[in-house]
Specification:
This protein folds into two domains: 12-70, no CATH class; 78-158, Type 1 dockerin domain (Orthogonal Bundle). A hairpin with a 4-residue loop joins strand 5 (78-80) and strand 6 (85-88). Helix content is 18%, strand content 19%. It has three helices and six strands; from the N terminus they run βββαβββαα. By secondary structure, the chain is of the alpha+beta class. The two termini are 35 Å apart. A two-stranded parallel ribbon has the order 1-4. The chain has a two-stranded antiparallel sheet with strand order 2-3. A two-stranded antiparallel sheet has the order 5-6.
Length: 159
């Protein structure tokens, strides 16, 4: 996180981190827990403060409901990232976090709650793929990712 306030560098309560609501995340990291860095201007340069995830939760009050999973491939929660299927696998500790908490928006393949050109581009990469029942990329539910699905998403973007 980047500190950009001019006043109160030494007061965590004035940090920009305090203005952001960051919670209910599932963080998967391969080697170690993520770190949070806060730099503050001092008379002879910058002072850098490194915080662990637990310290950032305590000091800045964000992420108190996060789940932290270390020692796993960051792509491990997803069904099939090579085929751009970023749904969370059933039974994974990340199930129920992030975009999975919100109702699914039809045509939204990125999980950001919007149907955009990015969703259309993801769909293009999947053309010709067989689609299991309930696959979010199979918008006309015919069992294959095809031009009909592309047209549906393109129309959603245009409206």
């Amino acid at each position: 996180m980047r500190e950009e306030t001019a006043a109160g560098f030494d007061d965590p309560n004035q940090s920009l981190l305090m203005t952001w609501e960051v919670d209910n995340n599932c963080i998967v990291t391969q080697a170690h827990e993520p770190g949070y860095v806060r730099q503050q201007l001092e008379r002879n340069g910058f002072e850098r403060n490194d915080y662990t995830h637990a310290q950032a939760q305590e000091i800045f009050g964000f992420g108190v409901h996060d789940v932290l999973i270390t020692g796993q491939d960051p792509l491990s929660p997803f069904v099939n990232p090579q085929a751009h299927d970023y749904r969370i696998q059933q039974g994974h500790p990340c199930e129920g976090f992030g975009a999975n908490r919100a109702p699914r928006v039809r045509g939204d393949l990125t999980g950001d709650g919007l149907v955009t050109l990015q969703d259309l581009l993801l769909l293009v990469d999947q053309l010709g793929r067989q689609a299991p029942p309930g696959d979010p990329a199979d918008l006309n539910e015919d069992g294959i990712i095809d031009l009909f699905d592309l047209v549906i998403v393109a129309r959603m973007i245009g409206n």
